[in-house]
Amino acid sequence: MKTLNLDFIKQRRKELNISLQDMAIKLGFKNASTYMKYERGEYSFKADHLPLLAFELRCNIENFFGNNVVGIAT
């Protein structure tokens, strides 16, 4: 199973000064709290979230995969 580097996602969002609320809106989540649960690993990002995340975080999807052991829902 592929793993997502959630630390990278959180750090990159902060580097770009994107709020939790802004990410929630752009990914179609109800609110910042819901998005935060994805970023913390309480919920798993789905494969169709990855292109949106990459676009908003101005990076490649490959940047999301690393050492943090969190699965992806398919």
TrEMBL record:
Q: Which organism is it from?
A: Anaerobacillus alkalilacustris
Query: Which InterPro entries does the UniProt entry name for this protein?
Result: Cro/C1-type_HTH, Lambda_DNA-bd_dom_sf
Q: What region holds the HTH cro/C1-type domain?
A: 9-64
Record-given protein name = Transcriptional regulator
Q: Which Pfam families match?
A: HTH_3
Q: Which PROSITE patterns match?
A: HTH_CROC1
Q: Name one GO molecular function term.
A: DNA binding
